Amino acid sequence: MSARDQLSTPTIRLSDYRAPAWRVERVELEFELGIDVTEVASRLLLRRDRAQDEPLRLDGEGLELLSIALDGQPLPVDRYRQTEAELEVDGARDGSVLETRVRLRPAQNTALEGLYLSGSRDTGFLLTQCEAEGFRHITFFHDRPDVLAQYTVTLRADRSRFPVLLAGGNPDGAGELADGRHWARFVDPHPKPSYLFAIVAGRLERIARDYRTADGRAVKLVIWSEAHVIDRCEYAMDALERSMRWDEQAYGRNYDLDVFHVVATHDFNMGAMENKGLNVFNAKYLLADPDSTTDDEYRAVEAVVAHEYFHNWSGNRVTCRDWFQLSLKEGLTVFREQQFSADMNSPALKRIEDVALLRRAQFPEDAGPLAHPVRPSQYSEINNFYTATVYEKGSELVRMLAGKLGPDGFRRGMDLYFAHNDGQAATIEDFLGALGEANGIDLSPYLAWYAQAGTPRLRASGRYDATRREYALTLTQHTPPTPGQAEKRALPVPVKLALFARDGHMLPLHVDGHPRSGDTELVVVADKAEQQIVFREVDAEPVPSLLRGFSAPVILEGMDAAADLALLLRHDADGFNRWQAGQQLATCAYETLRDHGGGGAIDAWCGALAGLFAEDGIDPALLAELMTPPGEVELAEREREADPERIHATRQQLQQRLAEQLGGEAILSRYQALARETSAGLDATSQAQRRLKRRLLELLALLDTPTAQLLAAQQYEQAPGMTDRLAALAVLVRSDAPQAAGALAHFRQRYADNPLALDKWFSVQTQRTGEPALAIVQTLERDAAFTLKNPNRVNSLYGAWARNNPSGFHRTDGAGYRLLAERLAELDALNPQIAARLATVLNGWRRLEPVRRARAREAIAALAEREGLSRNLAEIVRSMLH
Ligand code: PHE
Ligand code: ZN
């Protein structure tokens, strides 16, 4: 572990923000690249803010300083001071030039932050990761996003070991040097913060494509990977081109350099990184081929390629003033990607997936000890704030604003936002200000959403008055306290709603003061603790459909009459709203089953789905989603003393009821029909069919296990691609089929050289529910292919187990918690970011039933007391205990 990780951990506060006293206007970097030793020479043109009287202080950690000169003069040792995190220099003036030379050791960098080696010493390549504060591990700099500089980067290296040399910006010459060495230079004309800097060097293969932007620029698009997987980059290239076109059409945004490089690596802490002109991707989100990539993963590749590309405007051209504003780029870019993916695929399914993710990942975060606002007010380690709240909830906030302004108004606002802030480091206020200004609306009430943590609960109740032909809807809102925020205020909650008649058609809405009387959908903004809306001219008691499209990130309570929800599930024309009603109904059914062993909600849910199952014309993918109740994590959220084993068992029973209602014969024959009809293609129909096929196989396994296992074994053998193969393998593993061992051995061999597929081999086995899971995990961690040094591998084992298999992880004896805590400590010494993120799987420990709760607490407390924890892990573990 590096020295910095053991430093004391100051709290950084948004309220302490100060504009930089010094800036760097231009930076010239020269790299002498080597696997063991790399030297970096830097030349900074400095600017000082005359209003501030501060010595020149630059960030720099773990840098071995070889030489230093100011304005051409070598500096004597008494003119500068290097601490563990900073370099302080005397005598610098506005316009001074500071030159330093430092030595780095990339092969020893296991934290994967700064300059590091991906792959083996012999065949791997060098790359950098700088967001959020990695640049200070490369050279001395003002490593903060509000210091924007122009970069000129020269790379020098041995040609045979490093034939490819890349940096962000446009190429500006290359050539030979003595002794088999060569050089390449890149100039980035766009000023950027240090976190967007990147270089890559090594043996890489490429695919390239010419692209012309809408405003006429000829751009070379190049994707780089290890040679033997370069064929698997074509899909990402297509996705990149689609993203670029879409951003031109939807937002009028054009690409702004002559080249756009994308590089795949297997060693990466996150999904991907939007470095200016040189995106770096976790291979998981770039490589794709039918033999090793599932349909879901294909869509993820498209989404992440788009996300990173969209950052070129929302993040790079307009960047963040400070890291508290992170959602300014992330929430907005997630939202843009969601719009794009909805346009490319099924909008309803995209919304279903995103809302399901929000509920599974963000709601628990917002309800637990790590809850924080979309714009946090303080942190000790910024890397801990790349969270579902900043990303996913942040996107929901942008969606609310976009919904309020409408498509044209939002576009007008975005145009103004880009125009006003281009080339600058902006804040959330700048964003809301521009959107509001372009539309003559004051959006400042929505700022409270960025500052207040916790998920608001919106309770709805209705009363019908037959004599007055009025329906009164009462909405109350309440947000439970979160750490550090005891008091909560009412937020503006846009509730999109409709009223249905009992025959399933939508009623025209008449509300006093609402301009477009007669519409069948309208948005009410609930911004008080309690309010009432009265609908007039309502002939019979209606069925309300609330929060349509998930118009605000809140938890809706009340309005859960089973018959009403079943009606919406059957009749709503909109797939997402149908799903939403179905999830609510399934939750009621689950709770009835748990508390009473049976009841009307179960029949209503199963009956409505049986009706849909028998119908023609419904999208098979939507049907598969409708037939899936909320997951175990989501169900646990509703309980004060969760028993994961019991939740698992009850949910299984509920699905078994559904399977019984559909009938074994019907499931089987539908499965077989799909198996006959489905082509191997990636088209939407085939993907949808595979999705339903998988769901049917899972349901059948609950009804007639031997038959389902036989079919799964067959499907495994005959699968034309990974989607079917992995689905079959999962059924075999989860049901402990006699065929599972053979299939696993086959899979292992077949994909021995494909790390991404091997990750799936690890994670699928962690999904055995209940008691056996722990021993499986212990066997897998002794596997020759397992290593704590690779983040994807770590997540595919411990992450998959602890996050996606609650009944297998949360054991009453606490052995799951102890194993995880042990590994977290080992991992922390190698890669603090990955350790800290993995630790968050424990964040719901307080809502476990008492026995597990006590065991979890012990394990977390023991971890917290270990010496030498990184700032990353320490912050997470300590916050969880508070
Ligand atoms: N900025 C990246 C993204 O969301 C995520 C990331 C953060 C990557 C930190 C690496 C390090 O696109
Ligand atoms: Zn991002």
Automatic annotation (TrEMBL):
Cofactor: Zn(2+)
Residue ranges annotated for the Aminopeptidase N-like N-terminal domain, each copy included: 109-196
Family note: Belongs to the peptidase M1 family.
Domain named Peptidase M1 membrane alanine aminopeptidase: residues: 235-444
Upper classification of the organism: Bacteria, Pseudomonadati, Pseudomonadota, Gammaproteobacteria, Lysobacterales
Protein name: Aminopeptidase N
Pfam families for the chain: DUF3458, DUF3458_C, Peptidase_M1, Peptidase_M1_N
Signal peptide (residue range): none
UniProt feature coiled coil, ranges: none
Species of the source: Dyella marensis
Gene Ontology terms describing biological process: proteolysis
Superkingdom of the organism of origin: Bacteria
Catalytic activity: Release of an N-terminal amino acid, Xaa-|-Yaa- from a peptide, amide or arylamide. Xaa is preferably Ala, but may be most amino acids including Pro (slow action). When a terminal hydrophobic residue is followed by a prolyl residue, the two may be released as an intact Xaa-Pro dipeptide
Keyword line: Aminopeptidase, Hydrolase, Metal-binding, Metalloprotease, Protease, Zinc
Peptidase M1 alanyl aminopeptidase Ig-like fold domain residues: 454-557
Keyword Cytoplasm: no
Molecular function via GO: alanyl aminopeptidase activity; metallopeptidase activity; zinc ion binding
Domain Peptidase M1 alanyl aminopeptidase C-terminal: 563-881
E.C. designation(s): 3.4.11.2
NCBIfam families, A to Z: pepN_proteo
